[in-house]
Amino acid sequence: MEVKLSRRQVQLLNYIRQYITRKGFSPSLGEIGAAFGLRSPSTIHEHLEPLFKAGVLKRERGAKIFEVVDKQIAVLPETVTIPIMGFVALGQALIPNPKEESMIVPVTEVPQDRNLFCLRVRGRGFVTEGLLDGDYLILGQAMEVFDGATAVALLNNGTAVVKKVYREETRARLMSIVSDDPPIFVKRAKIQGEVLMVIRKLSLL
């Protein structure tokens, strides 16, 4: 059976395997920590625990010797953890998230030079924008965006919208993403972030 590990976990497993091959015994926790920049024993154990659970690393209770178990390994894509900061709902201001939640996204799917955060769509008010209740918007923090970029912006009354933004001489024009709804004109669009990705989790019936 194929075991799925992150690239970091594969590197850790290979280090232990190669160490045992060279020296005939397994590395100490201190040596593992030094090799991977891990300082505290608890942090080292946190990195080893997934290898034990996957069955690719074994250690007898109370023993200090590791045993590497040969299994077919698939390397998972590297991921980035993005905080879910709140909710966006039609006709309302942005709603803060009372919980500490996050989305895990493949690192190849998002730019690495942006501060990222996530907002979740609440309700069916954005159906005309192609957004459904429960959709996750991955945003890059921004106060300005290029013309035609999709952004979460606040209107003059503080309510949040998800629109394409266009700059005009004395105002901003906010256009629907997918529909022919008339534009909204505001003196200044208070940009909260540029929408980079929409993630939709489908429920199985």
From TrEMBL:
<dbReference type="GO" id="GO:0045892">
    <property type="term" value="P:negative regulation of DNA-templated transcription"/>
</dbReference>
<dbReference type="GO" id="GO:0004252">
    <property type="term" value="F:serine-type endopeptidase activity"/>
</dbReference>
<dbReference type="InterPro" id="IPR050077">
    <property type="entry name" value="LexA_repressor"/>
</dbReference>
<protein>
    <submittedName>
        <fullName>Repressor LexA</fullName>
    </submittedName>
</protein>
<dbReference type="GO" id="GO:0006508">
    <property type="term" value="P:proteolysis"/>
</dbReference>
<dbReference type="InterPro" id="IPR006200">
    <property type="entry name" value="LexA"/>
</dbReference>
<dbReference type="InterPro" id="IPR036390">
    <property type="entry name" value="WH_DNA-bd_sf"/>
</dbReference>
<dbReference type="GO" id="GO:0003677">
    <property type="term" value="F:DNA binding"/>
</dbReference>
<keyword id="KW-0678">Repressor</keyword>
<dbReference type="GO" id="GO:0009432">
    <property type="term" value="P:SOS response"/>
</dbReference>
<feature type="domain" description="Peptidase S24/S26A/S26B/S26C">
    <location>
        <begin position="83"/>
        <end position="195"/>
    </location>
</feature>
<dbReference type="Pfam" id="PF01726">
    <property type="entry name" value="LexA_DNA_bind"/>
</dbReference>
<dbReference type="InterPro" id="IPR006199">
    <property type="entry name" value="LexA_DNA-bd_dom"/>
</dbReference>
<keyword id="KW-0235">DNA replication</keyword>
<dbReference type="Pfam" id="PF00717">
    <property type="entry name" value="Peptidase_S24"/>
</dbReference>
<dbReference type="GO" id="GO:0006260">
    <property type="term" value="P:DNA replication"/>
</dbReference>
<keyword id="KW-0238">DNA-binding</keyword>
<keyword id="KW-0805">Transcription regulation</keyword>
<dbReference type="InterPro" id="IPR015927">
    <property type="entry name" value="Peptidase_S24_S26A/B/C"/>
</dbReference>
<feature type="domain" description="LexA repressor DNA-binding">
    <location>
        <begin position="4"/>
        <end position="62"/>
    </location>
</feature>
<dbReference type="InterPro" id="IPR036286">
    <property type="entry name" value="LexA/Signal_pep-like_sf"/>
</dbReference>
<dbReference type="InterPro" id="IPR036388">
    <property type="entry name" value="WH-like_DNA-bd_sf"/>
</dbReference>
<keyword id="KW-0804">Transcription</keyword>
